[in-house]
Amino acid sequence: MFRQILSLTVFFLTLSGDVLGQKNPLRISGTVPINDSTFMKSTEVTVKDWIEYIVNNNFDTTLFPIKKGLPETISLIFDDLKKIQEQKYLHLEKQSIMQYDYNNLITVKPTASLNALFKNDTSDITINIPITGITFEQALNFCDWKAQILNTKKTPKVKLSLPTVDIYKNVIPNKDSLNQKKCALFNWALCNCVSVNKKYNKSQGKSLLRVDSYWPSDLGLYNLQGNASEMTSTKGIAIGGSFRHTARESYNDRIQEYTKPEDWLGFRYIVTLK
């Protein structure tokens, strides 16, 4: 009898361990759950993410964004990447700790030349703004690449993809553009409200801001409204509005159509079981 009880105890402990181990099988660093089976990247994919993508794919020229879709400072940085050996504005440094399991994760630092060019105004040279100037197909390829990296060690396997329009309709909070103090709650066109954070006053409503600007939604998602409009799984349809759209265009009942890369168009991904 004791052996039977012991066997049953071991069985249930093992089962409990399996269940607990599978509680959040999709959890990836930098993502948050939006339902029982889906996680979403908490921010838009950044310029830094895209630089790592290019570096880890041997500087493949087909991966580069178009210059017209980039802020001037970011365009200079991507020009540097193409030169590889003669980088003037960007310093790349390999790390020994492989976070995210990249083959050659890098540290990206603007050089003194770039700082001098823009008078040390670091708000103008941050690489933690959304990547723009890319095609729908490039965004899909990024998702496939990132999934391959994650799946080298992750069990069960996961899939990365662009969110559907319906997902965006469920997660965009439709918050007002201003709070009671008349400060902007997201980055929308011609917004000239005074922000507590002074570095945003210059760029707010005129250009992209950091992907972690403003407070996140209740789900933990940043900049679902404004900043960069985000590609959906339907080619040609974006949602969420941007710094070039009115505040009303950021609501979940509006879409933004596109036919080519734009300086206001970015993306984020979702994670599901493969």
Secondary structure elements and their pairing?
Blueprint: H1 2-21, E1 31-35, E2 38-41, H2 47-55, H3 72-83, E3 90-94, E4 106-110, H4 112-117, H5 136-151, E5 158-161, H6 165-171, H7 199-203, E6 229-231, E7 237-239, E8 256-257, E9 265-266, E10 270-273
Parallel strand pairs: 6-9
Antiparallel strand pairs: 1-2, 2-10, 3-4, 5-10, 6-7, 7-8
Number of strands: 10
For the largest sheet, list the strands in their spatial order: 1-2-10-5
CA-based shape: globular
Derived from helix and strand composition plus strand pairing, the structural class reads alpha+beta
Largest sheet: 4 strands, antiparallel
Q: Label the CATH architecture.
A: Alpha-Beta Complex
Fraction of residues in β-strands: 5-15%
CATH level-1 class: Alpha Beta
Average pLDDT value? 82
Count of domains? 1
Q: Percent range for helical residues?
A: 25-40%
Q: What Rg is obtained from the alpha carbons, in whole angstroms?
A: 21 Å
Total count of helical runs of at least 4 residues: 7
Describe the oligomeric state of these chains in a short phrase: single chain
Give the ordered list of helices and strands.
HEEHHEEHHEHHEEEEE
